[in-house]
Each structure stands twice: as C-alpha cells, then as structure tokens.
Design a protein that fits this description.
Layout lengths: L2 H17 L4 H15 L2 H21 L6 H24 L3 H15 L8 H14 L8 H12 L5 H15 L6
Helix pairs in contact: 1-5, 2-3, 3-4, 3-5, 4-5, 6-7, 6-8, 7-8
C-alpha cells in the first residue's frame, strides 16, 4: 500500500467530516466497501479488525449501539496496540512488520478526530485548577477527573496526565525559604 492511498484516505475523511457529520462506524463500513472494490488488502484487513473490536465492545457491554465518543476511545486503544507493536518489531529487527503496523496506524488515524494540542490541554487544565480555587487545595486525581470530563475523547489520557503533572509539579512544589 502506498503513501498516496493512505493520504487519499485521510483527505476523504476530512472532506466527509466537513461536509456533514457522518457516524464513525458508517464511515468505516463505507471505506471497507471501497477498499474491497479496489482490492486494498492492508486497508481491508485493518478495517475488519477495527469493526471486530467495535463488535467485541458491543458484546462485552451488551449494547446495541456505540456512541462516537466510545468509538473514538476504542479506535485509540487499537492505535495504541499498533504503536506498541511497532516499537516491539523495531527492537526485534522486524522492520517489515513494523512498516505494516505503521500503515495500519495511518488508516486508523484517518477515522479519529484531530487531537487537542498541548497548549489547548494546558488551558483546560489551568481553568480546572483555577475553578477549584487554585493549586493549593486540589490534588492530581481531582484535576485529572475534571479535565477528562471536559476534554472527553479529544486527547489521549496519557498526554493529559503529562500536562497535569507538568502544571501541578510547577505549582504544587513547596517553596523553600
């Protein structure tokens, strides 16, 4: 699969998101049909795995439908699995498998909304701290919980956690006399 195909998928995703709000699952199913017609094996296998992950979630949670926020969380989980595999394959000298996983990462990313930047996350975290009365009376767990409620699936928890630690680390250190 070429970079051109992956770029084309990402461009189509952005066009669809701008034109109308299309549920993620419908978008995935549509791309799967297109990939099957064009015989794009890596796209087909990746999208089938993603749809299987969504179906497994439905079975595990006994739900008939999944909202888009939950789908984004599932897609991010699938993305993390592939990124961990890439690292393991590179450490093991299996670059051809790492490259395949990287292609899968790009395909999955094409269905995810753009992530918040660190500055945007920092602004939300600072507002949460200020709303709670400054950094003196709040702890990490309170700030993380409230921040994740506000941010939702717009940023990975790992990134939010790092920003909270950076901000609270700076403001919660005792001042030496």
């Amino acid at each position: 699969m070429s970079v051109r195909v992956i770029g084309h998928i990402a461009a189509q995703k952005n066009d669809l998101r701008k034109a109308s709000i299309v549920p993620i699952r419908s978008e995935i199913e549509k791309k799967l049909k297109t990939a099957q017609k064009q015989k794009q094996e890596i796209v087909i296998s990746t999208l089938r795995l993603v749809l299987a992950a969504l179906k497994n979630y439905e079975i595990d949670h006994r739900s008939e439908t999944i909202d888009d926020d939950t789908m984004v969380k599932i897609l991010r989980r699938e993305l993390n699995k592939r990124q961990e595999s890439i690292e393991a394959f590179r450490r093991g000298g299996r670059n051809e498998l790492a490259d395949k996983e990287q292609q899968e990462v790009e395909i999955i990313k094409s269905f995810l909304p753009p992530e918040m930047t660190a500055d945007e996350i920092r602004a939300v975290v600072q507002k949460v701290i200020d709303d709670k009365g400054g950094s003196a009376g709040v702890n990490y767990g309170q700030v993380m919980g409230e921040t994740m409620k506000k941010i939702g699936s717009a940023a990975p928890g790992k990134v939010v956690s790092q920003v909270v630690k950076d901000i609270m680390g700076d403001s919660s250190k005792p001042k030496s006399l």
